[in-house]
């Protein structure tokens, strides 16, 4: 099996507009989805990301505050999972709770094996 990285974007404004009960339900959907992946032996790891960060650029190694993108494009978290193929990884991502929101997105990337 290969490893795939899911990058989660969007959903922030939609989540902010939800009631406390709706937010709790949404978070339970995340827990259920990730628990199912873990039970099937497909989950390697997952974490939300803080909205702030630093960017280091070029040979001069200039450090700047970031990120420098629109909120809807900011990566809010990630998940690494195992799947038999790229198509299967995409199918797994379609159950992600971020897609409950109109602006929710999952980017699926295959993790290349580093050969040394």
Summarize the structure.
28% of the residues lie in helices and 34% in strands. The chain is an alpha+beta fold and 116 residues long.
Structure description:
This protein is an alpha+beta fold and 116 residues long. The protein has a single domain, classed as Alpha-Beta Plaits (2-Layer Sandwich). Helix content is 28%, strand content 34%. The chain is built from 3 helices and 6 strands; from the N terminus they run E-H-H-E-E-E-E-H-E. It has helices at 12-16, 20-39, 86-93; strands at 2-9, 43-48, 53-57, 62-66, 75-83, 105-110. The strands form 2 sheets. A 4-stranded antiparallel β-sheet has the order 2-5-1-6. A two-stranded antiparallel sheet has the order 3-4. The longest helix has 20 residues, at 20-39. The two termini are 20 Å apart. The relative contact order is 0.33. The mean pLDDT is 89.
User: Low-confidence segments, ≥5 residues, pLDDT <50?
Assistant: none
The rough form would be described as: flat
* CATH architecture name: 2-Layer Sandwich
The count of domains is 1
Quote the distance from N terminus to C terminus. Answer: 20 Å
The fraction of residues in strands falls at: 25-35%
How helix-rich are the residues, as a percent range?
25-40%
CATH fold group: Alpha-Beta Plaits
User: Could you give me the name of the CATH homologous superfamily?
Assistant: Dimeric alpha+beta barrel
Number of strands: 6
Coarse structural class: alpha+beta
Order of helices and strands: EHHEEEEHE
- According to CATH, what is the class? Alpha Beta
How many helices in DSSP terms?
A: 3
Largest sheet entry: 4 strands, antiparallel
Record the strand order, biggest sheet: 2-5-1-6
Compute the CA-based radius of gyration.
16 Å
